[in-house]
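Standup notes
- DV: blocked on the single-chain target, sequence here:
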Amino acid sequence: MALSNLSIVDATSISDEQKRVILTIVDDISWDTDPEEKKKHIKMIETKINNYFKYITSGQVLNNYPESVGYGVAIVIQCKYPITRKVQEIYGKIAEQFKQRDILFGYFVEPQLDEMKKTEDAENVEKKEEGDDKK
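- DV (later): unblocked, structure below
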């Protein structure tokens, strides 16, 4: 599933608290590739975002989730891998364009296992040091 299937919505959730339907794009492709692959990746993201936009503006999202009538919409990209500065700039431009149409747009990068390991290691060192101080 995910980014390789451009014609489907990867995940949908409804936030009653925020009064928003949240449409998630799962980007499970690494940006650590050659320039041609990066161009293909960007094109896939653009196509998927455009398909989500059509899904929203056609009213299909309200047909599928009638309980969300009166709610706003957000598109979120869940990135499995860190993104490049160029992609951050592209996402910033997309956010501005969607903001004009009252659609929130954002992204987040999943924590990387090696980063989580570093955090755990640092916490273990701190605990050990705290224990040493008490002796």
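- Follow-up: DSSP finds four helices and four strands in the chain.
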